[in-house]
Write a structure and sequence with these properties.
five-stranded antiparallel sheet; Immunoglobulin-like; FlgD/Vpr_Ig-like; Rossmann fold; mainly beta; Ig-like_fold; FlgD/Vpr Ig-like domain-containing protein; nine-stranded mixed sheet
């Protein structure tokens, strides 16, 4: 076959791998057991002893020996329904970008197709007990795995695909090659098209390893916010064993509509192999729009360097503004976030800020600029909510916030504190119930269904609701497990952790469903399994004024509000489509008033007084009254009147 490779190199892509028979300790096989096993069984699923085989374009054409050159040459005359072009460039890992085009060849594109990515290395020595010791085109890795990626493409379609191979320092980069092929996953296993590209070894390997944002003219919190001009300091690493880099520059591609590039290019100079250099002396600068919806944006950085005319793109993301949902991880270093933030991001598709109490302390300012807070304490029993936490949460709720609090030792820890009774509207009854079954109160439209608690939770509190609150979840053997309160603010308090919900049975509520119900009751439109919206219709107000930002403020603050409820409410996904989704068309284009009042109830400033359609709006207040005079420091209220409803928020003006 080596002779065939030499004579047909331009049309011949080779991938070699080793099975576990007759020697299961063969180092060629042990080098990547998973890929070797999957690909061997892919071609020989029913064979007990795997023997050397040659597969040409996925077709079985011989064992041990055969007229391989004739078979391969004949296969080269067969047309393909696909065109495949690609490029390989190191950028941290080894990036491969391919373009697939469905052509007008006679072969069809029906049936299950997969595209597979393979990295091979040549001139590899293997101390094999059987067979040769030196190999070319030895399979080193497959991404994302040996199964490949499902592909759907029709005639005339163009598809762009990208993958990255991690780099093993033991590989010889001068002998690496990337092979990409499209294969039918049916009984034929026919390869319809393939391509191969050497990995460049005479260029640098540059990638982003850190991003810092500076806002020296803003509030200095390291976040790009409305009206600020910010600087981006990027750290680029030149990975070994690729050569030293010279004349390194990086240009930020066009940002989203909320950002304006001021200086998009940074000069990094020289970066030796193995070193990291930043652009602190040549920052990238951009400005943020005066009013925007908080969101996450993805930037593309185009990097150029010498030698070899190196050019590659790398990406990074930043949060712009402050999401209106804050998730506070207060589980004392445990991993309960998998039952909260991971589910909210992956299953419920929500956009939120994550705060780690163990690393960042109590979230005072960020808490006051949030609309809805999810706070969990895990198994902690001595520092569930500290005095600072309680003070900050009290201020948040006084401003009309929405809180979902969960933890199995909270009552045991702070049940005697005024906050427990006054803000959680709960009374501590007992600790460490042995009950494992929790049910919604009969007749409740939101909290129906059962929750089974796994053995990991051994210290769930038993509580009771104050007269102005509702018991919504109860233990099977008696006692309250969950409380809701609705007044000037909203609170859901669980005396157990959502992480304790057992998911082994389809007959009980799973964690994502519990979270969906809680967030839906707080006014956030999310969906449970089956696509049904959660929460009573009254939970979605037709008008809502969000917490202003910044708060407290000195000179200028931004006030945003939503008319009509529906999608985009609370900026959950960080994307505003302009739709309000109100429940009654007669409310649309109704008159809207947004005004500022002082603590005596006197109107200070009328900011909006006009008809408006459903949607999201934002206005600024410069701390001046109707006469244009600066108001004094103190507490003020923003009041929104629209659609027959009223929404009020408290804010603080500082000089």
């Amino acid at each position: 076959m080596d002779d065939v490779i030499v004579s047909l190199d331009s049309v011949f892509a080779v991938v070699r791998y080793h099975t576990w028979w007759p020697s299961a300790n063969d180092p060629f096989y042990l080098a990547n057991i998973e890929e070797n096993t999957v690909r061997t069984r892919y071609y020989q699923p029913d064979t007990a002893h795997y023997v050397p085989r040659l597969f040409i374009d996925g077709l079985i054409d011989g064992e041990f020996s055969g007229p391989w050159e004739e078979l391969i040459a004949a296969r080269d005359t067969v047309g393909s329904p696909l065109e495949l072009v690609g490029e390989v460039m190191p950028s941290g890992g080894i990036d491969v970008d391919v373009v697939l085009v469905g052509t007008e060849e006679p072969l069809d594109l029906e049936g299950p197709l997969r595209i597979r990515y393979v990295l091979t290395e040549s001139d590899v020595y293997v101390a094999s007990p059987t067979g040769p010791h030196w190999y070319d085109q030895a399979m080193r890795d497959m991404v994302p795995d040996a199964e490949g990626v499902e592909l759907e493409i029709g005639l005339g379609d163009t598809i762009y695909e990208s993958r990255t191979f991690p780099v093993d320092e033991e590989w010889d980069i001068e002998n690496l090659e990337v092979v990409v092929f499209v294969q039918r996953d049916d009984s034929t296993k026919e390869v319809l098209q393939a391509g191969k590209w050497p990995v460049p070894a005479d260029v640098p390997n540059l990638s982003i390893v850190d991003v810092a944002l500076l806002d020296p003219m803003g509030d200095g919190d390291g976040r790009a916010e409305e009206g600020e001009e910010v600087e981006l300091i990027l750290s680029l690493m030149n990975s070994e064993p690729w050569p030293d880099a010279a004349a390194v520059t990086a240009t930020l591609r066009e940002a989203d509509a909320s950002l304006t590039l001021i200086d998009s290019t940074a000069d990094f100079g020289a970066i030796a192999a193995g070193d990291t250099v930043d652009n602190a002396g040549s920052p990238i600068t951009l400005s943020v729009a005066d009013y925007l919806l908080p969101h996450r944006t993805v930037f593309t950085l185009h990097i150029e360097a010498e030698p070899g005319g190196y050019a590659a793109d790398d990406t990074f993301s930043l949060v712009i503004g402050h999401p209106q949902i804050l998730v506070v991880d207060d589980d004392d270093g445990a991993t309960c976030e998998t039952s909260y933030s991971d589910i909210m991001a992956e299953s419920l598709d929500l956009f939120f800020e994550q705060w780690e109490v163990a690393e960042q302390g109590s979230p005072m300012e960020w808490l006051l600029n949030s609309e809805l807070v999810v706070w969990f304490t895990g198994d902690d029993s001595t520092q569930t909510l500290t005095a600072d936490d309680r003070e900050h949460l009290g201020a948040f709720l006084d401003g009309g916030g929405k809180l979902f609090l969960a933890g199995q030792n909270i009552g045991q820890d702070i049940g005697d504190e005024p906050f427990y009774h006054d803000y959680l509207h709960a009374t501590f009854v007992d600790s460490a119930t042995s009950d494992i079954a929790i049910f919604g109160v009969a007749g409740d439209p939101v909290w129906g269904g059962g929750i089974i608690i796994n053995q990991a939770q051994q210290s769930m509190d038993v509580v009771s609701a104050t007269e102005d609150a509702d018991s919504v979840l109860v233990y099977q053997n008696g006692g309250v497990a969950g409380i809701t309160y609705e007044g000037e603010y909203r609170v859901i308090y669980f005396a157990f952790g959502v992480e304790g919900a057992d998911e082994s049975s389809p007959l009980v509520l799973h964690r994502h469903q519990v979270l969906s119900k809680a967030l839906g009751w707080l006014g956030l439109p999310v969906e449970v399994s089956g696509g049904e919206p959660v929460g009573p219709e009254s939970a979605l107000p037709l008008c809502l004024v969000h917490q202003n930002y910044p708060n407290p403020f000195a000179e200028m603050t931004s006030l945003s509000y939503v008319l009509g409820g529906g999608e985009g409410y609370l900026s959950a996904r960080g994307v505003w489509d302009g739709s309000g989704g109100g429940r009654d068309a007669s409310y649309r284009d109704a008159h809207v008033k947004l005004a500022i009042y002082n603590i005596q109830g006197q109107r200070v400033r009328l900011l909006v007084d006009e008809p408006q359609e459903d949607g999201r709006y934002a206005v600024g207040w410069d701390g001046r009254d109707e006469r244009g005079e600066t108001v004094s420091s103190g507490v003020y209220f923003m009041r929104l009147d629209a659609r027959g409803e009223r929404s009020v928020r408290k804010m603080v003006r500082l000089k």
